[in-house]
């Protein structure tokens, strides 16, 4: 079906913002409630030119970024994927819980075998109890650098936002552009053991903008706005390997949603967003901009503490006010003041603002009692260099990454199918360590032996278990943050801090009243984060770092959640067109 028209808000002044929001949502075109929305993904190669270079990239329906999917809470979404490439592919609907329906979740070799060249697969899922900004992306190797797009979920028909309705809603996807072929980049890195080459530019909706050499005005994203209006920017960090600062010169942003969960609003001039995360922010334009100031720069730049190389550039886009005479040039607009690339204190200050709405309509259902406590160390490590080659990782080794010193090995068949058939031998081991096998001073001097273990290991969990998971960053190969994404669940971020987690004193500082609910959280640089979730979704669910370089090095694991006793607590049977390996 054709995507509905833009979610435009013709909002006059109103004494009752919530009534206005109610009226506007009722009037949205093409989005009746509780219906089936069908989309088709033709996946093929398309020639795209950026930075004066043309290359052939994977696209959906010839679009880069890919098409926008619109739905309402309660809708059924059916996406038919036809793979017309010469390589395998699969798609993940990032943040959709996929209740009992892991077959539609998408990570290759976890919930499905990939869709092979010339084959098709239908992703069929229902959006249950969720509304807000999510996104979709490929989930195999580094294909998501080009294969991604927004997945926008409106509230049920007649249900207003918990804030005044914006005049217009605008999805903005942050990304990365590589001049080189990204599959060759990661393939070479895995072969040599070195860190991969970094991107050449960051992008706004696929466009690098005016700060890069050989990037013309047509490669600059421009958001045209009217004075005195409120716009809701649906921000998505679809970058491959970088957390990003974002700001708009001379404007403030009010954050109202995180990972498709409403939060208590707070206002900032700069925000930071990790790969995989989404945020809805309200931007209110000046009621009377001066004739000399009709255009303002929007900018993104990296946040990182890596000891390796990274793309230390700034991408810009343009916020342009409606004016009788458009500006002659937007090439030299002053950039917003963003924090320095390694400003961890700015990140911590921003992160501390997030609180769930925790209202009667949108309660924060934080598990108050815990059935099972798990401690994961998260970080880098090394593998020994094979005897017949020279490696370019630390001290002649190969880079690796792990959780509790286990570097995940991708299976040759899908874990979910093996679990459904109770056919585990030779596919997975249900012995993933739930505490660090070799305790050490995690944020201090690294141990002498930094080699990791390898295995396709999962953590088995009984249905309806309340889990507290503490993720502890390590300083092996340098301390840096790690954005961890959990499939199949949201979780509540009940605590975080720097240094080593203290199981005696730190829990007393937890927020169990209104912690933010997310699907992706960054483990702080040289710190820890504690989350709680209820294992009420049977299936096999991947959890991984959303830096794809770390995912490629093995920084992932899976939760294997048993069926419950009731019929509506058991996995659905697999679809008839489930791909074969």
Automatic annotation (TrEMBL):
Catalytic activity: 4 hydroquinone + O2 = 4 benzosemiquinone + 2 H2O
Keywords, in A-Z order: Apoplast, Copper, Lignin degradation, Metal-binding, Oxidoreductase, Repeat, Secreted, Signal
Residue ranges occupied by any Plastocyanin-like domain in the UniProt entry: 43-155, 169-322, 432-563
GO biological process assignments: lignin catabolic process
Compartments, as annotated in UniProt: Secreted, Extracellular space, Apoplast
Function noted in UniProt: Lignin degradation and detoxification of lignin-derived products.
Family matches, as NCBIfam families: laccase (TIGR03389)
Listed name of the protein: Laccase
Naturally occurring in which organism (per UniProt): Hordeum vulgare subsp. vulgare
